[in-house]
Amino acid sequence: MAAAESPSAALRRDLCSRGIRLAGKMRADVVDLLDAYVEQQGLDASASVAAVEGVPLAAVERWDEQTGTQRLLENLAAYRAFRALLAQMLEEQREQLGEADAGLGRALAAVLLQVSAFAYHLEELLRLESREIPGEEEEEEEDGPPPLPRLSLFEQKLRGLGVLRELAQWAVRSVRDLRQLAKPSPAASTAPGLAESP
Amino acid sequence: DSHVQYERVGADVTMKCGSMDWDAAVTWTANGTDIDESHLNGSYLILKSVDLSQSGQYSCYEGSSWHLKYQTYLRVGTPPKEPVLMCRSNNYPKGFYCSWHLPTPTYIPNSFNISVIHGTKDMVCEKDAIPKNRCHIRYLQLFSTVKYKVTLTVTNPLGKNFTTLTFDEFAIVKPDPPESVVAKPVPNNPRRLEVSWQNPSSWPDPESFPLKFFLRYRPLILDQWQHVELSDGTSHTITDAYAGKEYIIQVAAKDNDIGTWSDWSVAVHATPWTEEPKHLTTEAQVAETTSASTSSFMAPPTTKICDKGAMVGSGAMAVCWTAGLVMAAYSVLFI
């Protein structure tokens, strides 16, 4: 059963393992950031935040039936969106900056860096699957472009809460997705993606 | 005409004898036993401040003809208190179950109704046949930040009550404890114990949703537990056991990323390997013990050659030594 692994299968497994570690670290940092954010912004941690436009929802139906490529593409789209959202939050944070928020700004920047790194990592995995990396312009074809109309301070804070919560969910989902991808099974990817054996 | 009548503990109950007039002559019985007239007001039966022992069949007979005029089954009980509800996912990511019970009995039949809402969506919680007070739900979505709201309403003829639980998908994940925990001594290692276990069988996909484990152990003679957290694998070797002491060992499990720890597994006991005195009685048996990992090789009775009684002059030493050499040769063959 344990036939010799092809180099690309080994690389894929390695990339998945590293991605899992990245996502795990990212999640831990996002959870810490969420706690700090709630406290510093004076929010109620249990407040329900309605789905915010432009924030990718981690919730998915029939997750177990997704192909490897679907997983990678959805993850990539999500983290690209988070990259833009976090950048915006950081900018808003700097505008409101007080001494107390400097730490929050740094934590936001650190998470933004990890999100960017993870997005890049996903692109690597897609390349390995011989998949075309979708251009980022596709994400901006919606009516509401990422730079949304000016929100009130309170609305900004609520949106920030929504962004970080979804990001924390995504980090968990990404770990699961990568574990599925790492499985040495033909069902882990679409047929064209199995271009491993020469 | 027979029917059931429910009354609260402590209530005053008045029973009419069907359509009989108030001044009719009647006899009341409780479970076949005549009731004293002091409890009657005309033909009405008056039961003051009823208690549970007064539940039973009450019958009213016309005085002279002994025709049965009325019969009722009195059930004394209480309205339900707020039920206790618990929801848990021990089979993530398949779904979760909710189970409930009443904190105190009502002594009369209760019916339970459970509703589950996820955001704006109503979900059906399918009732389990066994146990009765339990239902399960399949997850339609995973990784949702939208909370689940579960409302349990309990109703009986004397009243109703309800409770609500709100939680998110990750918070209720709690695996069952690990199974088949085994602890064994390690031969020739007086401070080691080898512990192994299996994933709980209710956890559907440990490959995609790996569990991590928490091991705790202590010698029976001490109260303080030692703890070890293990991020993978289903075995661990304890290397700091006190020699010769019996240990109690338990394992708990948790999803690697979300939820809470399981309850502790069934406890197992083990004592590290000790060097038994009988292992040192003869050179031959020492050679055998240190070279063979199983005890299938039994020392032949060559020790008799070295018995005191067998020693004859200086030649006996040479014989003993030869026997030892032969034994060593045999031992090497069995490594």
UniProtKB/TrEMBL annotation, chain A:
<comment type="function">
    <text>CNTF is a survival factor for various neuronal cell types. Seems to prevent the degeneration of motor axons after axotomy.</text>
</comment>
<dbReference type="InterPro" id="IPR009079">
    <property type="entry name" value="4_helix_cytokine-like_core"/>
</dbReference>
<dbReference type="GO" id="GO:0005737">
    <property type="term" value="C:cytoplasm"/>
</dbReference>
<keyword id="KW-0339">Growth factor</keyword>
<dbReference type="GO" id="GO:0043524">
    <property type="term" value="P:negative regulation of neuron apoptotic process"/>
</dbReference>
<dbReference type="GO" id="GO:0048680">
    <property type="term" value="P:positive regulation of axon regeneration"/>
</dbReference>
<dbReference type="Pfam" id="PF01110">
    <property type="entry name" value="CNTF"/>
</dbReference>
<dbReference type="GO" id="GO:0008083">
    <property type="term" value="F:growth factor activity"/>
</dbReference>
<dbReference type="GO" id="GO:0005127">
    <property type="term" value="F:ciliary neurotrophic factor receptor binding"/>
</dbReference>
<dbReference type="GO" id="GO:0070120">
    <property type="term" value="P:ciliary neurotrophic factor-mediated signaling pathway"/>
</dbReference>
<dbReference type="GO" id="GO:0048143">
    <property type="term" value="P:astrocyte activation"/>
</dbReference>
<keyword id="KW-0217">Developmental protein</keyword>
<dbReference type="InterPro" id="IPR000151">
    <property type="entry name" value="Ciliary_neurotrophic_fac_CNTF"/>
</dbReference>
<protein>
    <recommendedName>
        <fullName>Ciliary neurotrophic factor</fullName>
    </recommendedName>
</protein>
<keyword id="KW-0524">Neurogenesis</keyword>
<comment type="similarity">
    <text>Belongs to the CNTF family.</text>
</comment>
<keyword id="KW-0963">Cytoplasm</keyword>
<dbReference type="GO" id="GO:0005615">
    <property type="term" value="C:extracellular space"/>
</dbReference>
<dbReference type="GO" id="GO:0005125">
    <property type="term" value="F:cytokine activity"/>
</dbReference>
<dbReference type="GO" id="GO:0030424">
    <property type="term" value="C:axon"/>
</dbReference>
<keyword id="KW-0221">Differentiation</keyword>
TrEMBL record, chain B:
<dbReference type="InterPro" id="IPR007110">
    <property type="entry name" value="Ig-like_dom"/>
</dbReference>
<keyword id="KW-1015">Disulfide bond</keyword>
<keyword id="KW-0675">Receptor</keyword>
<dbReference type="Pfam" id="PF00041">
    <property type="entry name" value="fn3"/>
</dbReference>
<keyword id="KW-0449">Lipoprotein</keyword>
<feature type="domain" description="Fibronectin type-III">
    <location>
        <begin position="177"/>
        <end position="277"/>
    </location>
</feature>
<dbReference type="InterPro" id="IPR003598">
    <property type="entry name" value="Ig_sub2"/>
</dbReference>
<feature type="domain" description="Ig-like">
    <location>
        <begin position="10"/>
        <end position="60"/>
    </location>
</feature>
<dbReference type="GO" id="GO:0019970">
    <property type="term" value="F:interleukin-11 binding"/>
</dbReference>
<dbReference type="GO" id="GO:0008284">
    <property type="term" value="P:positive regulation of cell population proliferation"/>
</dbReference>
<keyword id="KW-0732">Signal</keyword>
<dbReference type="GO" id="GO:0070110">
    <property type="term" value="C:ciliary neurotrophic factor receptor complex"/>
</dbReference>
<dbReference type="InterPro" id="IPR036116">
    <property type="entry name" value="FN3_sf"/>
</dbReference>
<dbReference type="InterPro" id="IPR050379">
    <property type="entry name" value="Type-I_Cytokine_Rcpt"/>
</dbReference>
<dbReference type="InterPro" id="IPR003530">
    <property type="entry name" value="Hematopoietin_rcpt_L_F3_CS"/>
</dbReference>
<keyword id="KW-0812">Transmembrane</keyword>
<keyword id="KW-0677">Repeat</keyword>
<keyword id="KW-0472">Membrane</keyword>
<keyword id="KW-0336">GPI-anchor</keyword>
<keyword id="KW-0325">Glycoprotein</keyword>
<dbReference type="GO" id="GO:0004897">
    <property type="term" value="F:ciliary neurotrophic factor receptor activity"/>
</dbReference>
<dbReference type="GO" id="GO:0004921">
    <property type="term" value="F:interleukin-11 receptor activity"/>
</dbReference>
